[in-house]
């Protein structure tokens, strides 16, 4: 007795939609017959005798079982990738301690503490009077709340489950946890483009890419910690909707976009690159209803949700960063209307209707463009933010907004930084782009557009290397997956032997060819029935073409790329070696380059490891030796840390929302001592904090940042001129420095008593020279604290009355001398 599938029997249809594989399986209808022959159509199609598959112990596993086992294996691999992504970011905790890194994370940590202690409503209405004195800052309306709300929710859930972790611990480990989520989202996105193999490869690459590690190590509690996951997941849902045309996924895509808006200002990258891809699909003739479903709900629902975020508000519809999405929204509706009319009208009527639709569409577009031009023209920056204009014009910030250009992460990257941050992925990306063109789909075209745009933006601003990293990992994963497929296929082809190879190929292609033949036979049988009713030459020709197509298709499927066995083995070895080099570099970057917290510095020398904990030493002194209401002035880099760790009021901080206030502090630092005292005294400042690295060789000190203080101050107060601080266009602090430089407050506060550290030489280890003005005294400021390694120095403003009393005493002594002289010479 043979087992024969009926006409509606086991049929698995594999359908490629945008690079994603979806499988549909129907129920098996089994028929028992008395023959071992499978006769589908006795007139034209017969198959060879087939023994009962159920009794063959050597038969390959069924496709359903193979698919299920593959999913289970992929699940466990993804778990291991998540563990890898989390653990590789723990070097900072293992080597140092569980501490918040950098500057901005301290503000986020302080805000999270306030949220957990006071609740969500007080958070939205929180007016912080300890920052930007005397202006203050409304926190709820000026911060992206996604990171804070996420960490606060995690802390609430953990305490509900009786896991008593501190707020600081939750904040420290938020970034490593979301890096695992980002790796899984990368798998989902790449799987939609080129399959599960490429997805797993891309996920493991993202888990270790140094560019992402630099912003997601344990303790890096910044917006990017959750924003990169939101970015990748939003792109995945967009591609998923594009492949399936599901309104459910379109709604999830809008919600993911809303979370991205809550998390990071880089959401404008999403709302611009997706319209660009939609426009690209329309121009290249790839419009479909799936494209409309993927885009239209995102614009409508996503914009409405984005407007709910206080820091965004009406900017979601009023700024130029969002106008491209609205313009493409109009275009896709015009195109959709044209396709709809084309489907219900005759060709002649369609031409008339198309002329009308195009005319109305042009009028609407012109009206919208006119409105946009009017709105844009009314803004001094043409509706663009300063950071957006800096991306479009890399020279804009240096010309008009020095506060943006002064940030190191806003500078263009160097070529070595690409090798440092993405390593060998830079060489694999071109191969991935080529692989995306074979075949080109909507999903693969989006990935190509993503890598092109991210390469441009990363070349403008080094911070956006973080956006480039996922795109590089996706394309590198696709390239490696395709390469491994070719290499392993070639080795297996030659290892199996010629006769066994033929049998394996026949057995492996049997199910696919049988299924495709069943589908074609069903179509042919239906056509034959129609031929019996209405025989014609045209129908016979179509039948002949349909019969010949499967054979041609099977011939093309039997020609995979096979390399010589020695070439395949060598290429596979080199690929594994390349991957090993990438792993070694990534682990080194995670352990050495990006694990050190900026607040605790270390250095190695011949006598061992040295730890510099001067920052926390200085903040602890401020916290214990100053009044709660005392105001502390420093450059804006240290504002967040001073407020969070010392709990003291600062004049400016890292939010940089008020350029005039920052320029006032820069002007004070650039002015002579007396003028600086008057500026600080008008702001009720009691202490001034400066960071100095000349003794230990710390390069990120205030002397190296001083020219930016001059530029920012001179942008608001014209009497501060940068050439006054340069000698022949060169910035110097030695004996050839200008008098304006040597008499500035920053120079004096940094080098006061510096000659006492090395026997009177005053050698600066950062600038590698002896200072110009070595011996001087302070008349309006007094030193109150200097840390162990002289990295942080704190000065106190002298009271006004003492200074006046001293002047009065000197004036009286002078008047007495003049009075006595007048008595000697009354005629004078």
Automatic annotation (TrEMBL):
It comes from the Eukaryota. This is Uncharacterized protein.
